[in-house]
Amino acid sequence: MNVMKYKKYYLLFSVLVLIPGVLSLLLNGLALSIDFTGGSVFEFGFEKDMQSEADAVSDLFVQRSVHVNEVSIIGDNTVSITTDAVDAQTGAEIKTALGENYGQVTQKVFETVGASVGKETTKNAFLALALASLGIVLYIAYAFRNIPKPYSSFKFGVSAIIAMLHDALLVLGVFSILGHFYGVRVGALFITALLTVIGFSVHDSIVVFDRIRENLLGKMAKTTSFSDAVNYSLVETLNRSFATSLTVLLVLTSLLVLGGESMKEFVLALVIGIASGTYSSIFVAAPILIFWETRKNL
């Protein structure tokens, strides 16, 4: 089975899939939660159904000069409100006003994050991504140092990073689109999901690349072309890659459908990233590696 016969089309497909998300990122950015922007989040439990009361609850905040960013109904009787930073006294006044209007009210959450903390979180997120990328390139270059010449272990590392960034960019693009059209906001858990996706993507690419290295070191004839060696290695690892990813995706899909509301964005990011990671390790990293290693022969 010649999987790499259509490698140009795989890369073209990847570019076309990324374009909408990249455009959305450039034009709209990400809808950030208070973890990054700073502000306050309230969550109140009521005895009555609050599905039609979102606007009325929001008005109680506005009357006290509190800017409301988002109001969402969780279940039937829990209301979550995200606002600009609010002090404890104003928060207590709002709870009292809600009690006067709706009866017994249970305050489940009241949390304030300063703008400086939000900026620090953003800085740390980018730093974590940069350090992870650098560390992965160096590790792969070292681990694959015995690959036969004229092939370069550095190219293996950079190809894996490109596939990894493909997956991260896809997740970011999808959430930019969801944030623009559906108000989905990304918080600290999203960064955790993104770093998990990065780890999974690189892990999958390394498994494929390690099989390529083994075949280049002696399993295949020295006259075998690099493209054929890569193709043969991919065919050997296809079942393993798809089986591993499918089992993970089945668990994540169950969590997405049946899990709590607070986990939805986290699990969705993992589903998108792991599906993309499975694709990119085979249909992005390997074609890039082939084109790079054989460019003199093109």
UniProtKB/TrEMBL annotation:
Originating organism: candidate division WWE3 bacterium GW2011_GWB1_47_11
Protein name, per record: Protein-export membrane protein SecF
Location of this chain's protein in the cell: Cell membrane
Membrane-crossing segments per the record: 125-144, 156-182, 188-209, 242-260, 266-292
InterPro entries linked: SecD/SecF_arch_bac, SecD/SecF_bac, SecD/SecF_CS, SecD_SecF_C, SecF_bac, SSD
Family per similarity comment: Belongs to the SecD/SecF family. SecF subfamily.
Classification of source organism: Bacteria, Katanobacteria
GO MF entries: protein-transporting ATPase activity
Gene Ontology CC terms: plasma membrane
Pfam families from the UniProt entry: Sec_GG, SecD_SecF_C
UniProt subunit comment: Forms a complex with SecD. Part of the essential Sec protein translocation apparatus which comprises SecA, SecYEG and auxiliary proteins SecDF. Other proteins may also be involved.
